[in-house]
Amino acid sequence: MVDAARLKWSWGEVAAHGDQVPLFFYSTLFLEHPEVREMFPVSMAAQRDRLVTALGRVVSDVDNVDALVPFLQQLGRDHRKFAVVADHYPAVGAALLHTLEHFLGAHWTPELEKDWTAAYGIVAEVMSGAAEDSARQTPSWWDAEVVSHDRRAIDLAVIRVVPDQRLDYLPGQSIAVESPYRPRMWRQYSPANAPRPDGTIDFHVRLADAGQVSPALVEFTRPGDRLRLAAPMGTGLVLPDGPPRHVLMLAGGTGLAPLKALTEQIASFQDGRRVYLYWGVRHAGDLYDLPALREFAERSEWFHVVPVVAAGPGPHTGQAVGVALRQARWLDCDVFVCGPPGMVSQSVAALGHAGIPEGQIHWESGVSGLPAEEALS
Ligand SMILES: Cc1cc2nc3c(=O)[nH]c(=O)nc-3n(C[C@H](O)[C@H](O)[C@H](O)COP(=O)(O)OP(=O)(O)OC[C@H]3O[C@@H](n4cnc5c(N)ncnc54)[C@H](O)[C@@H]3O)c2cc1C
């Protein structure tokens, strides 16, 4: 039996040492097991934050199994793309115990060692079990070829890929992508189309200033290049079951991508739903997909697109949520919101304030932010 309070206290003591903790952990791991070094990116800076974040999450939910187990299962499935296998877990566990012992000094007691050994045993068992289950159904990753690379703006490309094997996903989900120009650095991108018979997938990639992966995808990637894609993730923007409601969509920047995929899915239903897409960008030059959206709206009387430019000019200026709420009440609609974290949180708050029931508001955050991926090892 793990003493949750003791575990949390000890982690608090260790985490107070900040960056020293992951630095010590990875040095220990690589010294004892040099063979695992090549599973990690050349630069370990972002990796260190992820280890601490993931461990913090495990410890804070250690007495909340309902929350912890799905988190660990997802983490286990997700680590397949790093080629993690069951044999790696004991090495990570030993490095973790060594790290805890180092930072806790005289506080590292036999009882604490027992608690941490048991807790890590559960983490390893749940993660590797989920990984094994998913290995029976899907590959660890999909190799894919870039078939086109359309540089729509200095900082934006629409990249079409075709995986060697069929990759099924739900519109609204995202897929982690690895570029050969940035090995072992996986970042999430959202398919901008519903699954097609030919298996091709479009990604809308915005170049993040001083980012690692997005510049490689926008600036260096060419048709014929090979990318790796991981299993699709996320449920926040998936179309809910239940009676079809009209749909309001609020997109910020490349948050357009999953909402475009959802629109294609709704088009295939032909169930009378109407879709109103408000697409917010900073400058008019950022409306990289507007001609295609307008052309689609002309052909589909149930679909409406309203471009909203933060700083003008144009008929609609300000924030997408503000413009949408000035035009209608949307109380009976499903609302989908996707974009940078600030845009999503402000929009969700404003929609709640306007009386739209929480269960009708669907959102996914992080599209222009730091990667959400959490790697434990
Ligand atoms: C579910 C989901 C879906 C997404 N879908 C899309 C999509 O469809 N299209 C899209 O373009 N993006 C999408 N993203 C965002 C994408 O995953 C990447 O985060 C984005 O492309 C930036 O990656 P990068 O490697 O270029 O930048 P990173 O190297 O990860 O850096 C991100 C930003 O943080 C800054 N930064 C990095 N490290 C530090 C540090 N130590 N201190 C301070 N600042 C730092 C960088 O300067 C940069 O601006 C999505 C994200 C999520 C979570």
UniProtKB/TrEMBL annotation:
UniProt cofactor(s): heme b; FAD
Domain FAD-binding FR-type positions: 139-239
Upper taxonomic lineage: Bacteria, Bacillati, Actinomycetota, Actinomycetes, Micromonosporales
InterPro entries on file: Cbr1-like_FAD-bd_dom, FAD-bd_FR_type, Flavoprot_Pyr_Nucl_cyt_Rdtase, FNR_nucleotide-bd, Globin, Globin-like_sf, Globin/Proto, MRET
Keywords: 2Fe-2S, Heme, Iron, Iron-sulfur, Metal-binding, NAD, NADP, Oxygen transport, Transport
Family, per entry: Belongs to the globin family. In the C-terminal section; belongs to the flavoprotein pyridine nucleotide cytochrome reductase family.
Broad enzyme group: oxidoreductase
EC number: 1.14.12.17
PROSITE patterns assigned to the protein according to its UniProt record, in alphabetical order: FAD_FR, GLOBIN
The keyword Transport is assigned to this record: yes
Protein name (Swiss-Prot/TrEMBL): nitric oxide dioxygenase
Top-level taxon of the source organism: Bacteria
Domain Globin residue range list: 1-132
Keyword Heme: yes
GO molecular function, one term: heme binding
Catalysed reaction, written as an equation: 2 nitric oxide + NADH + 2 O2 = 2 nitrate + NAD(+) + H(+); 2 nitric oxide + NADPH + 2 O2 = 2 nitrate + NADP(+) + H(+)
